[in-house]
Write a structure and sequence with these properties.
This protein is of the alpha+beta class. It has a single domain, classed as Sandwich (Immunoglobulin-like), CATH 2.60.40. It has a five-stranded mixed β-sheet with strand order 8-7-2-1-11. A four-stranded antiparallel β-sheet has the order 5-4-9-10, with no helix packed on it. Strand 9 and strand 10 form a beta hairpin. The longest helix is centred in the first third of the chain and has 12 residues. The protein is globular, with a radius of gyration of 21 Å. The N terminus is likely disordered. Keywords: Signal.
Length: 157
C-alpha cells in the first residue's frame, strides 16, 4: 500500500495530468482590513469634517517587515469611490493605518481621503484593498438590527 502514492503520481505524469500543489508560504496575506466603520455614530448630515472622519477603514500590516503602499488602493463595492495611497507611504511591521473619509493632515497612523460626503453605505458595503488588478483583501459590512437601532455600525474584519 505504501507504493500507491508513487503509482498515482507516475500515472498522472504518464497521462499528462497535473496535480494541485500547495501554495508557497510567501503567498500568505501581508495586509488585511482591521476595523471597517461604515456607519459613523449619529446622523450623516450635515457633512462636517468631524462626522466624515468618524467613517473610516483600517489597514493592518500583518508581517514583520515594512510594506510600501505605493500602487495600492481602496474602493467601495460599486467602485464609485477610490482612495489611492500616497506614493511614499510605508506601513511598518505589525502597524495599522486608519483611512478617514474626510480631510486632515496625513501621518503614519492616519490618512485622509478628502471626501466631502460619506463613502460607505450605512446598511451594507464591501471594501476592497487592491494593488494593480490583484485584490489583496476585502471586508463586507452588513448592518445588524442592533446597529440600525443605535444608528452606528462597524465590523472588525
Amino acid at each position: 500500500m505504501r507504493r500507491a502514492p508513487s503509482v498515482i503520481i507516475a500515472a498522472a505524469i504518464a497521462t499528462g495530468m497535473t496535480l494541485p500543489l500547495a501554495a508557497p508560504a510567501h503567498a500568505a496575506t501581508t495586509l488585511k482590513f482591521a476595523r471597517f466603520y461604515a456607519d459613523q455614530p449619529g446622523a450623516d448630515t450635515p457633512y462636517t469634517t468631524a462626522r466624515l472622519n468618524r467613517e473610516y477603514i483600517q489597514v493592518k500590516n500583518v508581517t514583520k517587515k515594512t510594506i510600501s503602499l505605493s500602487g495600492y488602493l481602496i474602493h467601495d463595492r460599486k467602485n464609485y469611490h477610490v482612495y489611492r495611497f500616497p506614493k511614499t507611504f510605508k506601513l511598518g511591521a505589525g502597524k495599522t493605518v486608519t483611512v478617514h473619509t474626510g480631510k486632515g493632515k496625513n501621518t503614519g497612523a492616519n490618512l485622509y481621503w478628502g471626501m466631502k460626503s460619506m463613502v460607505w453605505n450605512n446598511t451594507t458595503d464591501t471594501a476592497y484593498l487592491k494593488k494593480g488588478s490583484s485584490t489583496i483583501t476585502t471586508c463586507t459590512y452588513k448592518q445588524t438590527p442592533a446597529q440600525k437601532k443605535a444608528k452606528t455600525g462597524y465590523k472588525n474584519c
